[in-house]
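Example for tutorial group B:
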């Protein structure tokens, strides 16, 4: 049985695949994945792959970063509404991206960790 965990999600990100889960009861999409639907409570879920494209819904610039991202400072964080309709936040790799811009998923890999990011499409 597949477990819908952050670890499984990160394993997919390492392979440059953006996946979440879809509730088979109500169709609700979740990203990152959760073990149960946060809309109807069902545990009848399945993996759902996203194409990684979307539109920036919100943008913030972080001036005081996490230690491991200090050399990227300042950097942006965006909330992206994916083409599939679900919103997800990630780091922004292109400064000229703004609200309303089309972006695509990128994958920031650091040693054995990976973080979702977005760049101009
Ligand atoms: Zn549901």
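The residue assignment follows.
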């Amino acid at each position: 049985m597949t477990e819908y965990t952050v670890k499984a999600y990160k394993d997919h990100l390492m392979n440059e695949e953006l996946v979440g889960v879809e509730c088979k009861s109500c169709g609700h999409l979740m990203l990152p994945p959760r073990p149960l639907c946060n809309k109807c409570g069902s545990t009848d879920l399945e993996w759902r792959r996203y194409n990684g494209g979307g539109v920036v819904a919100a943008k913030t610039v972080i001036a005081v970063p996490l230690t491991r991202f200090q050399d990227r400072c300042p950097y942006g964080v965006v909330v992206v509404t994916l083409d599939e309709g679900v919103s997800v936040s990630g780091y922004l790799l292109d400064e000229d991206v703004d609200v309303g811009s089309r972006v695509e998923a990128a994958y920031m890999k650091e040693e054995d960790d990976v973080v979702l990011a977005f760049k101009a499409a």
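Residues 53-120 form a domain with the OB fold (Dihydrolipoamide Acetyltransferase, E2P) fold (CATH 2.40.50). Compare this with the pattern of hydrophobic and polar residues in the output above.
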